[in-house]
């Protein structure tokens, strides 16, 4: 059975492709070493247009009068504040360009503008080497190291040494665990429910935050935070799965890249990458759930727990809710055996 796969690997070859939509330029070359914050390409966002109805905007009675007020022609390049049209009389009214733009067309008393937009960068997201250029399309990069994927991030990237401020998977991170000496580091804490934690980390110029989970009430604050925030498990008070906790903890002090720029519609995931000078094997993005699979429970009282699949039932099991579904028998790290619906399991490969 195919299910959602989250990589939690001590050593693997990590290859990522950065694609830009529409028009853009590639800024790197094959063999170039990259920092997480290096721009590999820049592109122009989707084109935007504006229709200015001069008859309505200037209050003219006829379209012909409005047309005579036009002060631009097709092809003109306008700066923000340039005059587009102006009415006459004792109390003339002016229409000014709201942004840099080009006059694309004039139809009657309507001026159609193509809005100029600044280019946007596409960041590498992790320390890596460019292995392939996709002309007019994108860049392929790779590195070797540990890979830990989470379920949510705030669309930022950075790198720095790892600092661990949790002794077990059930801890909460509080402001007294954040110190000015951690400036420039990526800090891993437990679950976060205090806005002051995020505010303190930003004020002290930490490079990034890794939480097991976070209160949903902090989503807006986290999105607006200048540093990357990675949630390993999700929202609520969810302990970190033991496999991810032990792997990150074993790399304390090592340099890592935290990349929370991702698109869930493309099955991308926010991730932590810890480089090592040893060659790994490529990952598989899709895996089948089977006996022996290492999994994470994604809902219910055991949410966040890591386990090993011991058996997948061949027939459906009726749950207390009345729903019948396929379940599996999984063994938790404390050797307890429980029955869990397969839909409530994510693969930790």
How would you characterize this protein structure?
The chain is mainly beta and 349 residues long. It has helices at 54-58, 63-68, 195-203, 219-224, 242-249; strands at residues 2-3, 5-6, 8-19, 24-26, 33-34, 39-43, 48-53, 77-78, 83-86, 94-96, 101-107, 110-115, 120-123, 128-134, 138-149, 152-153, 157-164, 186-188, 191-192, 208-214, 229-235, 255-259, 271-275, 287-288, 294-297, 306-318, 324-332, 337-341, 345-348. It has 3 domains: 2-14 and 144-275, Phosphohistidine domain (Glucose Oxidase, domain 1); 48-115, OB fold (Dihydrolipoamide Acetyltransferase, E2P); 289-348, SH3 type barrels (Roll). The protein is built from 5 helices and 29 strands. Strand 26 (306-318) and strand 27 form a beta hairpin.
Using DSSP, what is the number of strands?
A: 29
In the CATH hierarchy, the third-tier topology of the largest domain is known as Glucose Oxidase, domain 1
- The top-level CATH class of the largest domain is Alpha Beta
User: Which of globular, elongated, flat, extended, rod-shaped describes the shape?
Assistant: elongated
């Amino acid at each position: 059975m195919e299910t959602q796969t989250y990589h939690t690997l001590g050593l693997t070859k990590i290859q990522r492709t950065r694609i830009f939509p529409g028009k853009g330029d590639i800024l790197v070359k094959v063999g170039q070493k990259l920092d997480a914050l290096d721009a590999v390409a820049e592109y122009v966002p989707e084109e935007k247009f504006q229709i200015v109805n001069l008859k309505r905007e200037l209050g003219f009675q006829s379209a012909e009068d409005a047309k005579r007020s036009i002060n631009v022609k097709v092809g003109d390049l306008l700066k923000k504040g340039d005059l587009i049209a102006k009415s006459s009389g004792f109390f003339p009214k002016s229409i000014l360009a709201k942004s840099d733009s080009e006059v694309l067309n004039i139809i009657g008393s309507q001026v159609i503008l193509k809005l100029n937009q600044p280019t946007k960068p596409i960041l590498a997201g992790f320390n890596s080497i460019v292995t392939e250029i996709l002309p007019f399309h994108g860049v392929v990069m790779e590195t070797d190291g540990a890979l830990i994927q989470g379920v949510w991030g705030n669309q930022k990237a950075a790198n720095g040494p790892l600092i661990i401020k949790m002794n077990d998977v059930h801890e909460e991170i509080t402001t007294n665990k954040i110190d000015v000496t951690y400036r420039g580091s990526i800090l891993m804490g437990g679950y976060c429910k205090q806005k002051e934690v995020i505010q303190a980390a930003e004020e002290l110029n930490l490079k990034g935050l890794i939480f097991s989970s976070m209160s949903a009430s902090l989503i807006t604050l986290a999105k607006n935070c200048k540093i990357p925030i990675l949630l390993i498990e999700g929202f609520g008070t969810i302990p970190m799965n033991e496999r991810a906790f032990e792997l990150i903890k074993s790399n304390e002090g090592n340099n890592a890249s935290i990349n929370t720029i991702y698109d869930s519609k493309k099955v991308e995931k926010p991730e932590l990458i810890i480089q090592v000078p040893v060659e790994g094997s490529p990952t598989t993005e899709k895996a089948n759930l089977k006996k022996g699979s290492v999994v994470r429970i994604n809902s219910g009282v055991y949410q966040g727990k890591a386990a090993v699949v011991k058996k997948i039932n061949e027939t459906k099991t009726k749950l207390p809710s009345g729903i019948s579904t396929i379940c599996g028998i999984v063994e938790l790290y404390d050797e307890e055996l429980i029955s869990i619906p397969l839909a409530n399991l994510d693969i930790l490969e």
